């Protein structure tokens, strides 16, 4: 009898809570303006300025560079508000190279094609909503 009550309670919770849990979706990122095929393109998805600064990414992908356009796909991205950063790691050293004053020497870009003043743009400028439906973000270097 106790097992039947627990099973019924579990089924009821699934019926109540289940519809509120959104399914993860697919996020395609189309990067254009890539200068050449040297090195790799590195793309990361993050949730906030703090996560971006601390390099705590929800997901990241690296693919071989190709002149023109490269597309990457992030699968199973939970619905929410995210931002993207990308850079062309021309010398394949796994980091965005900077000059002596900290200005990037390799091409970089952000979601919404946001630009920063004296540093990266704010999260509000790069943020966008991901739903459970497949979607594409286009970013230009």
What does this structure look like?
The chain is of the alpha+beta class and 141 residues long. The protein has a single domain (23-140), classed as Immunoglobulin-like. The chain has three helices and eight strands. It has helices at residues 2-17, 49-53, 123-126, and strands spanning 25-34, 40-46, 59-64, 68-77, 80-89, 108-110, 128-130, 135-140. The radius of gyration is 20 Å and the shape is globular. Mean pLDDT is 87; it is low at 2-20.
Jot down its keywords.
single chain, 141 residues, alpha+beta, Immunoglobulin-like, three-stranded mixed β-sheet, 3 helices, 8 strands, 39% strand, disordered N terminus
Q: What is the helix fraction of residues, given as a range?
A: 10-25%
Overall pLDDT metric? 87
Shape verdict: globular
Give the SSE order as H and E letters: HEEHEEEEHEE
CATH superfamily: Immunoglobulins
Beta-strand portion reads 35-45%
What class, by secondary structure content?
alpha+beta
Topology, element by element:
Blueprint: H1 2-17, E1 25-34, E2 40-46, H2 49-53, E3 59-64, E4 68-77, E5 80-89, E6 108-110, H3 123-126, E7 128-130, E8 135-140
Parallel strand pairs: 1-8
Antiparallel strand pairs: 1-4, 2-3, 2-5, 5-6, 5-7
